[in-house]
Amino acid sequence: MMKRFLYTCLLILGTVCTLYAQIDPLFFQQTNNRVLINPASTGKGGDIIASLSARQQWIGFPGPSTQALNVNSFAKQIHLGYGLTWINDKFGPQQTNNIKLNYAYFVSFEDAAFLSFGLGMGVMNNTYNELGFFARPAPGETEIIDPSLTDLSKQTKTIPDFDFGIEFDTRQFEIGASVTHLTYMYADQGLLRPMRNLYAYTRFKVPMNPYWDFIPGVTWHNTRRQNTFEANVSFRYENSIYVNFVYRNPVSCGIAFGVHIYKVFRLSYSYDYGFDNLSSYNNGSHEVTVSYTIPLNTTYVDDKLRFFKWKMF
After folding, report:
1. What's the farthest any 2 CA atoms get from each other in the chain?
2. Which residues on neighbouring strands pair with residue 119, listed in sequence order?
3. Phi, psi values for residue 10, rounded to 5°
4. pTM attached to this predicted model
5. Is the peptide bond before 139 cis (omega within 30 degrees of 0)?
6. What does the pLDDT look like over 253-285, one tens digit per residue?
7. Which of 60, 67, 123, 264 has the highest Cβ tally under 10 A?
């Protein structure tokens, strides 16, 4: 009975959240995968990079799950980063698929810093299916939650979608800002339409010794009705191993580990736990990211501009 009651509460929570319109999923490891929130980071590594992320929340319940795939590279002749991003997000009765082509133009300041402007262009498909969600049995039970819901219809809509961002990088400093779902005003938001999301972030690298770097940073995320702040502290060993501690309001903490294998594979795992009213009934959230890098010849002098000669964040 308790499991059924809690499951019903989660269904109600899913409905309330989706009524506020589409909000971007928050990845715990976004500091190492900025392209998911800012197209200005596209191609930033100078190589061909393919990355796959999967996040499962509210372990112990059929809660939200999110997957993201991005592939990006850099054309040194025209100083342009380009790539493809796909995000699949499930929250309650709503499922969102968002696919975009991303572009970023880089301006170099004598190999000491880079300024980039990014644009993402694509489509978003939102599906709201109360029949498939509310009319299913609770975990471990065979009786459906509410048989009266069997006449509800399934809604789906596909719409154009655009993102814009800017980022500035030096060897020890990063600052950026972006807006997703750029063309949708707050007055336009609805069940199948996205809400405009705003981001701003910064971090800096402090060398501790020849092997270890200390990298603190902060991120701000706004969705009109809510402001989310994140503080993270990372310790990185020779650009190959890192551990990251994160605090995010309202009252969520976590830890992430990452390792580079043979300099081309990167494997990251994170666990975070929210200290809210449902924390006693779930086991936190897990997130895994796997990426593969194909090195390109982007480190030699070309027209007196050295693109990606030094290791960025």
Report:
1. 71
2. 103, 164
3. -65, -35
4. 0.84
5. no
6. 999 999 999 888 999 999 988 776 655 666 788
7. 67
